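INPUT
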Amino acid sequence: MAYSEKVVDHYNNPRNVGSFDKKDPSVGTGIVGAPECGDVMKLQIKVSPQGVIEDAKFKTFGCGSAIASSSLATEWLKGKTLDEAAQIKNTDIVQELALPPVKIHCSVLAEDAIKAALADVKKKQMTTVGETASAL
Amino acid sequence: MSDSMHRGACRYCGAPVESSGLCGRCQTAERSDFFAVMGLPRRLDIDLQALEAIYHRLSRDVHPDFHHHKPADEREAWLKRSTSVNKAYRTLRDFHGRVAYLVELEGGGALKPQAPPELLEDVIEVQDLLEECRRGEETERRALADRLQHERERLLDQLARLESDLKRGAREWDASLGAETERSPSQRQILRALQDLLGQRVYLLNLIRDLEGVPSSVA
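OUTPUT
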C-alpha cells in the first residue's frame, strides 16, 4: 500500500514533536492507544489564560499514518480555542491525508487524543478555579 | 469516542457492515460465526487435533471442485462457504486469535477496550529511553542499554502474568457456558476482561519487540 505524499511528508518531517511538563496547569495531555495495532499517541496542548491553544506537541509510537495524523493535528490545534479544537473530526484528517480505509483508525486515535487533551486541561482549569475560590 | 464505532461497524475501518456481512467501504470484514462454521460450541478450550479433523472433512465437502457442475449462484455460495471454512480454521486454531474472535463475536464490536493509562505511559517512557539510547554518546548509551535490558525483563514478566490471566479468563468463560444463549452480566465481564488483556498484550509485544534491538552493554 502506498502512502499519500502528505503522509510521507509528515512522517519524514513531523511537526511539533516533543513534550510539555504534564504537571503545568496550562498544559493538557492526552495519551491514547489503539489496541488493534498497539500504536500509542501522546498529544499535549498549551493553553493561554484566554483559552487559546498557543502550542501543541506530540509523540507517537506507531505507523506512518498515526505519526502523520498526530503531526497534522498539532498543526491544526495551534491558534484554536478549546471549543474550536473540539470540532476537529477524524474525517477531516482522513481527507487531508488521503488515508486508506485500513488506516482510518489512526485518524480516530488522533481525534481521541485531542479530546483527551482537551478534557485534561479543562479538568485542570476547574480544579484551579475551585482552589482559587476556596482560597478566597 | 467516534460515533462510527457502533455495533455492526467494520472492525477495520469503522464503516457500517452491510447485510451481506461485508463492510460497505473496504469489503474486508466477513461476519460469519466461525464456531458455527466448524460445528463447535463457543468454547475457548479446543482440541486442536479434532479441529484439524473437522477442517479436513469440511474442506472436502465445500471444495468448489465438487460443485463446479452446479448453477452459477450455487457455485458462488459454495465458494463463499469454502472461504469461510478456511478463515474459521485459521482463526480458531490459534489461542489468541480464538479469544479475539470470541470477544468480537459476542461483543459485536460494541466494546472498545481500554488500556490502563499506566501501561500507555509506560510505553511512552520506555520508548523515550530507547530513543535517547539510540541518539546518545557511547558511555551514555551503555548505561541506558543496561536500563533498557532491565525494562525488557520487567515487561517479559508482565507479559507472562498477562498470558496466565488470559488462560484463566478463558477457563472462566468455558465454565460459565450453559444451555442459555442470553449472556449474563458476569459473562460480559469475563469477555471485557479478556478483551482488555488482549489489547494490553499487543502494546507489550510491540514494546518488547522494539527493545529487542538494544545492544547489551556486555558485548
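end of record. The two ends of chain A are 60 Å apart (CA to CA).
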